[in-house]
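pinging the channel bc i need a second pair of eyes. not urgent but kinda urgent?? the chain im working w is below, pasted from the shared doc
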Amino acid sequence: MEILNQKERTKALGFFVLFFTLAVLVIILALMVNIYFPFKENNLLKQENARIQREMKFQDSFSFQLEKVKVAVDSIGIPQGGYKNDFFNEKLALSILADMYKQIPKDSLKNKIMYNNTILVYKELIDAKKQIKQLTINQKTLDSLSTINKTLKEEYDKMKVDLEVCKQLYQQE
């Protein structure tokens, strides 16, 4: 006794094995993806976290050094010391700014332009303070020369009057 629908049954068994194999492969693939990607994502997050921590450390260091520069720049041009420490404070601020520029990482920061602009602005501030100090000294010199000029003009006018008096006395004789 032979089975009448053996071809259909074999065909159905073949489809069953095919779909069963596909379902098992999909489940195994899902498990592998479920296991592999969290580790990969974890590694990527660790790298991102390390980069952010490096940037935070750099920001802390940058702001600490910026405070030192601020103190040095603020003490430039204070007349209490008679401008004696201006040269030292200016050179100190410029050397700290140069060190800060050298310490900027060239590859890992997002805001390199901000750090560079901050350094440039402080350098321009130092130059402006130096120029203000020079202009103040020039103004004092101009004021003293103006006073001397006024005094000499008064003496000149007195001499001129004396000369006129002498001329009149000489002509009368």
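so The mean pLDDT is 89. and The longest helix spans residues 6-74. — does that match what u expected or am i reading it wrong
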